[in-house]
Write a structure and sequence with these properties.
about 200 residues; 8-stranded mixed sheet; about 25% strand; binds inosinic acid
Length: about 200
């Protein structure tokens, strides 16, 4: 359906979320489910864009994505830029988390590589965090970025089947589990993405 056709109909307004990551989209939909907006992915909105994420921070990259989609659609556009920071590795993979060891490399390989890098590293030296920046751009030009983190440690071995990406190796001490061992509901209570989205929801 074209955007012009939508405007003539009395439909729930939409938020177009600029991600192609199905794992993220599942979490985002759940967290935003109480807003009176239909939350659709770029794919569902029929929007294709080759966005170059050439920012140097999570915030810049999230804003680049949200602005591009807002300009293309004229609708409310939200984007997330997130990643894993491992302190012992100077905060790598950081903003390169998705591209780390190659975009198409499986997370089994990426996760094993990170665990191997921290072989022999103990205790608080294994500290790590997930970071998330959520950017939103409204049709009137208003924009906002919210950033949040969840602190944890790099696990000594992958565990759990839930979530996506680096979840099997991100250990949350207060739960005694990796984020891949948490249910989506549990992860959405404490995650970087949930915290940043809850902050953004205050704008609606
Ligand atoms: P982005 O799509 O450029 O923001 O890349 C984010 C990447 O960071 C993802 O593809 C994952 O590799 C990683 N990441 C971010 N958030 C999470 C999470 O909640 N769990 C696991 N991995 C995550």
């Amino acid at each position: 359906m074209k955007i012009e056709e939508r405007e003539e109909e009395d439909e729930m307004p939409r938020i177009i979320f600029a991600t192609g990551n199905a794992g993220k989209m599942k979490e985002i939909r759940e967290i935003l489910s109480d807003l009176p907006y239909e939350v659709v992915s770029m794919k569902e909105a029929g929007v294709t864009a080759d966005i170059v994420e050439d920012g140097t921070t999570f915030e810049e990259n999230a804003m680049i994505k949200a602005k591009t989609i807002a300009e293309l659609t004229g609708e409310i556009a939200m984007a997330d830029d997130s990643g894993l920071e491992v302190d012992y590795l100077d905060k790598a993979p950081g903003i390169y988390s998705a591209r780390f060891l190659g975009e198409d490399t499986s997370y089994d390989i990426k996760n094993k590589y990170l665990i191997d890098q921290l072989d022999g590293v103990e205790g608080s030296d294994r500290s790590a965090r997930f970071v998330c920046a959520i950017a939103c751009v409204w049709p009137d030009g208003k924009s906002k970025v919210c950033r949040a983190t969840i602190e944890g440690e790099l696990a000594k071995a992958p565990a759990g089947e839930n979530g996506f990406g680096y979840d099997p190796i991100f250990y949350v001490p207060q739960y005694g589990k990796t984020t891949a061992e948490l249910s989506m509901e549990e992860k959405n209570e404490i995650s970087h993405r949930a915290k940043a989205l809850r902050e953004m929801k205050k704008e609606f």
